[in-house]
Amino acid sequence: MLPSAVIEGLDPAAEPSGRRPRRTARDWIVDFGCFLLAVLVGILAMDTLEQEPDLPKAVEAVDQLIGALACAAVWLRRRWPVGLAVAMVPAGLVSGTAGGAVLVSLFTLAVHRPFRYVAWVGGACAAVQAVYYWLRPEPGVPYLGAALFGVLLTATVAGWGMLVRAKRQLLLSLRDRARHAEAEARLRAEQAQRLAREAIAREMHDVLAHRLTLLSVHAGALEFRPDASREEVARAAGVIRESAHEALQDLREIIGVLRAADADDAGRPQPTLAALDELVAESREAGMKVTLAGRVADPAAVPASVGRTAYRIAQEALTNARKHAPGTEVTVSVAGGPGDGLAVTVRNTAPEGEAPRVPGSGQGLIGLSERATLAGGTLTHGPTADGGFEVRARLPWA
């Protein structure tokens, strides 16, 4: 919702605290233009006064004095739009040279205040116009024509001001909606990151539980087999040391990631890079044209956490290709080695014709980026030069 002070005044630069902002260069130009318009109308009215021979000089002098004061009061139109418009109603009744200031004040009121103010003040101005031309008829102009012209001029100025107000209100509403949309987009992105971290934490929890269980089993074997041979003890100690090292590696990845309260996914088997061939085969059975262009010579040598991340990246990228670019050729490439890192690339060609519009918020790609970051790597994605799409990730392989 827009602040009440902004809605009431319809000033885009208005401050929520209620203090009026300083005039900008544009405000000074507009105010000066309104002042010149009021002065110009007053000068034209002075020529009309000279055409009234029966008008006393004192009345003419008072008319011009009130007109000058009304023109000077135009500079107060932003601070007191209602008060100025109300004050201009009696001024318009006794002074013809104040007509320009009356119109400017009515326009300002229509721009900065709701319709109820414009209706009362505009109606009063129209009535004053009719009385003015009855008391001081225009030379050579019928009373009915002059009064009707005054009423139409008043209605035109009020309508123009309300149109400007409606336009400004629409712009403020669109800006407010844009700010709300940006805030909602940030919240959705943060929620997607949180959900991705929770999913990763669940997976790491399961893997870490497996490591610790293995440690417990081998430590228990040493405890209950004190007569074991040196080779058996050395083998068990090696398994314990390796499992402890891998558990510490997994623990470093899970630090800072909160685990979700529900355990619906607990106990599920965790994929590794060796399961990539099965994933590609499943995609082919689903009707996709998938080519596994690159492989790692020994998938079992890839660290478990890195292999899981690479598998999830390929899985999500294949899902996106099946949803957003059905029927295209997809190429999956995995390459790298110890010390060089692991590179995962999933690229699909440009779809034939117009791609189907499938609802999606991009949360899958956000989750992939989160996975790659937590694994110590990077992930990039975007369209290719030939109109296709590519997901490229680089993961560390110590």
TrEMBL record:
Coiled coil: none annotated. The keyword Transmembrane applies. Gene3D superfamilies: 1.20.5.1930, Histidine kinase-like ATPase, C-terminal domain. Keywords: ATP-binding, Kinase, Membrane, Nucleotide-binding, Phosphoprotein, Transferase, Transmembrane, Transmembrane helix, Two-component regulatory system. The chain crosses the membrane at residues 28-46, 84-110, 117-135, 141-163. It catalyses: ATP + protein L-histidine = ADP + protein N-phospho-L-histidine. GO terms for molecular function: ATP binding; phosphorelay sensor kinase activity; protein dimerization activity. SUPFAM superfamilies: ATPase domain of HSP90 chaperone/DNA topoisomerase II/histidine kinase. PANTHER family: NITRATE/NITRITE SENSOR PROTEIN NARX-RELATED (PTHR24421), NITRATE_NITRITE SENSOR PROTEIN NARQ (PTHR24421:SF10). Its EC number is 2.7.13.3. Pfam families: DUF7134, HATPase_c, HisKA_3. It is an enzyme of class 2 (transferase). The lineage of its organism: Bacteria, Bacillati, Actinomycetota, Actinomycetes, Kitasatosporales. This is histidine kinase. It comes from the Bacteria. Residues 309-396 form the Histidine kinase/HSP90-like ATPase domain. It comes from Streptomyces griseicoloratus. Residues 197-261 form the Signal transduction histidine kinase subgroup 3 dimerisation and phosphoacceptor domain. Residues 25-159 form the DUF7134 domain. GO terms for cellular component: membrane.
